[in-house]
Amino acid sequence: MRKPRNTPTEATNIEWHVDDPRIRKWIVQCAICQSTGYLPSVPKKFFGRKHLVTFFKPLDVNEAGICNFCQQALEKINANLPDELSSEEQTYFKAARKSHRKLVEDTW
After folding, report:
1. What is the pTM of this model?
2. Does some domain include residue 3?
3. How many domains does the chain divide into?
4. Structural domain harbouring 54
5. CA separation for the pair 65, 21 (Å, rounded)
6. Rounded to an integer, what distance in angstroms lies between the CA atom of residue 108 and that of residue 40?
7. CA distance 37 to 60
8. Which of 28, 45, 66, 74 is the least buried, fewest Cβ under 10 Å from its Cβ?
9. Using H for helix, E for strand and C for coil, what is the string for 44-73?
10. Per-residue pLDDT tens over the stretch 57-102
């Protein structure tokens, strides 16, 4: 007689996707906001594509591992950034980073 499985199937278990190296290589995470998604360049005939599309959103990252949303935010910040920051300005930018991360999480 066959024993019932206590673990969820791979179709419903998100941990399976993270642990499977065949699928893990297509999952990326932004270095700044820590958003997780899959590379848009996943082959159409890849066996795990259905699972990736179900559990994750496409996330395009650059060579530094930064998503497009964070890259645009960094460019805006760097355009207005003086050479040296006072402690008050450093506190402001830390708060801005936290609110940016919240904004990214809300859009996902």
Report:
1. 0.59
2. no
3. 1
4. 14-107
5. 19
6. 16
7. 8
8. 45
9. CCCCCHHHHHHHCEECCECCCCCEHHHHHH
10. 999 999 989 998 888 888 887 777 665 667 776 677 677 766 666 6
